[in-house]
Structure formats: C-alpha cells, structure tokens
Amino acid sequence: MKNLLLLAITLPLLLGGCNQSSFVFKYEIHGDNVTITDCEVGTSGELVIPDTIKGKPVTTIGDSAFQYHRLTSVKIPDGVTSIREKAFDGCRRLTSITIPNRVTSIGDQAFSFCTNLTSITIPDSVTSIGRSAFRGCANLRRVTIGNGVTSIGYNAFQSCTSLKSIKAPDSVTSIFEAPSDIPIADTPP
C-alpha cells in the first residue's frame, strides 16, 4: 500500500512536471497575494502557473523560483505583475514564454541563459528590464519591447548572439551600458 501511495504522489511529477495543480508549487502568501517561490525538483516540460492558490491571486514569480528547471514553455497567469531576479535563469530548454500584460518589471537575470528561447514580447505594461535579464540567450532572434519600458538594465541582452539589433521605443529614457555586440537603436521618428 505504501508503494502505491508513493507512486500516486510521484507519477504526476515524472510524467508532466508542474501543471495547473497547486500542490507541486512552493509559494508564500502575503496578504491577499501569492508569490511562487519554487516548483518540485526535476520539473520539466510545459509549465502552466495557476491563476490562484487557496483562492488568492498569483501576483509574483519570486527570486530563483524556476532557476535551472528543465522547462520547455511557460504560461504565466494574467494577474502576475512582477517577475523577480533569476526567476527562470538557466532554463536552457525553454523555447517559449508568455508574459502577461500586467507585468510591470522583469528582474535582474530573470531569463538569463535560456539558450533555446527564440523570441520574446515584452508588453506595454513593463516599465523596467533588469540587469542581464536575457544575457546568454544565444538563440534569441526577435525581441519586441513594449512602449511602457523606460529603463533597460546593464547587459540586458549581452551574448544574445542570434540577435542583430533591438529597437527601443521612445519611452526608454535610460539604457545602462548596452553591450557593444548588440546595438540598441532608437525607434525611428
């Protein structure tokens, strides 16, 4: 009986990684909001982060929450407003991620070394892109930066060797030492 129970608990992790079941996520509740802090060890494949946990909205992807997991795609719920430092750092198998329209900040190294990520759309709601946010995303070919971004952190796109240029919207007022290997151009008038 013990072996059957253990199999019933671990089988979903082996077959599907994280999915919409909140029991595989580690999280913290702060007032009426939830911060995702981690996921079960060995998580791989498609990740769908739930909209709510225990009836409270998921609003933050915490520091290093999914760092080094073997994720291939991520769907972040619409209620998330912040993707913190190193949230998806080192997710080398990640090929796609959907950033919802309520996210206002992308933290330092949030997606660094996601080497299979090919494109990213940063919505208009985002105002800041942190230091080294996409550093080392070697296969990143297309970046769309929304009109709300006002600052792009130091080396945000460093070593994105497949990326030839980035057009910064008029809203960008500060680019901190953009790396010389990826020109960040002003949007044409």
Task: Spell out the key features of this protein.
189 residues, mainly beta, 3-stranded parallel beta sheet, globular
Could you explain how this protein is built, in words?
There is one protein chain. By secondary structure, the chain is mainly β. The chain has one helix spanning 2-16; strands at residues 25-30, 33-39, 44-48, 52-53, 56-61, 70-75, 82-83, 96-98, 105-106, 119-122, 128-129, 142-145, 151-152, 166-168, 174-175, 184-186. A hairpin with a 2-residue loop joins β1 and β2. The radius of gyration is 17 Å and the shape is globular.
Topology:
Layout: H1 2-16, E1 25-30, E2 33-39, E3 44-48, E4 52-53, E5 56-61, E6 70-75, E7 82-83, E8 96-98, E9 105-106, E10 119-122, E11 128-129, E12 142-145, E13 151-152, E14 166-168, E15 174-175, E16 184-186
Parallel strand pairs: 2-5, 3-6, 5-7, 6-8, 7-9, 9-11, 10-12, 11-13, 13-15, 14-16
Antiparallel strand pairs: 1-2, 4-5
Structure summary:
This protein is mainly β and 189 residues long. It is built from one helix and 16 strands. The N and C termini lie far apart (70 Å).
**Annotation, overall tally of beta strands:** 16
- Shape summary: globular
* Arithmetic mean of pLDDT: 83
Q: Unreliable runs, pLDDT <50, ≥5 residues?
A: 1-23
